[in-house]
Write a structure and sequence with these properties.
The complex is a heterodimer. Chain A is mainly beta. Chain A contains no helices and eleven strands. In chain A, strands 2, 4, 5, 9, 10 and 11 form a six-stranded mixed sheet that branches. In chain A, strand 9 and strand 10 form a beta hairpin. By secondary structure, chain B is mostly beta strands. Chain B has no helices and eleven strands.
Chain lengths: ~110, ~120
């Protein structure tokens, strides 16, 4: 059965403390891996698409990477405004979302 | 970028009434739209997949007679919660993509409160 698992569930970091969020997937015939940011009371905001192992995408303090089994969202020197829930989703026959990582950056 | 507009953002209704939520793709045509429900601090739960001009496909456990979905055009899908009850109170989010391998783009959600 296709599955997407994100870890950790929640993460608290000091401002400037870099870290990585993990998204492990078991999807046959992966057609794309997506990362989203969701703020409370809002819909998810699209961040990145990764299509093949070895691919990397960057945007400001965020960098997403992809292997054949997992994806990482690296956050470098985060700021309080990076606090949000980060969702990953894998597209095979259909799109499957992970449960998200709630990231809290302390000033 | 692809923009999805969802209205209303908040609605409060009395038990037994019906509520309609609209989802529009503003700058692209969406042959498929998706409706999700989200509980506090939980992930997205897919309710149904809506295809333009045909009947929606509902996920297991979702009552199709309660959650009516219409996808009348390539840019508009509606979700009607019929005879709403307090347990239907939730955050409903629509999404759409412009092709099969493209990411989904989400509306900003509708907070439904049934009193």
């Amino acid at each position: 059965e296709d599955q997407v698992t994100q870890s950790p569930e929640a993460l608290r970091l000091q401002e400037g403390e870099s870290s990585s969020l993990n998204c492990s997937y078991t999807v046959s015939g992966l057609r794309g891996l997506f990362w989203y940011r969701q703020d409370p009371g809002k819909g998810p905001e699209f961040l990145f698409t990764l299509y093949s192992a070895g691919e990397e995408k960057e945007k400001e303090r965020l960098k997403a990477t992809l292997t054949k089994k997992e994806s990482f969202l690296h956050i470098t020197a985060p700021k309080p405004e990076d606090s949000a829930t980060y969702l990953c989703a894998a597209l095979g026959d259909k799109i499957i979302f992970g449960k998200g990582t709630r990231l809290h950056i302390l000033p | 970028g692809a923009v999805v507009s969802q209205h209303p953002s908040r609605v409060i209704c009395k038990s037994g009434t019906s509520v309609k939520i609209e989802c529009r793709s503003l700058d692209f045509q969406a042959t498929t739209m998706f409706w999700y429900r989200q509980f506090p601090k939980q992930s997205l739960m897919l309710m149904a997949t809506s295809n333009e001009g045909s009947k929606a496909t509902y996920e297991q456990g979702v009552e199709k007679d309660k959650f009516l979905i219409n996808h009348a055009s390539l840019t508009l899908s509606t979700l009607t919660v019929t005879s709403a009850h307090p347990e239907d109170s939730s955050f409903y989010i629509c999404s759409a993509s412009d092709s099969h391998n493209s990411p989904l783009h989400f509306g900003n959600g509708t907070r439904l409160t049934v009193t």
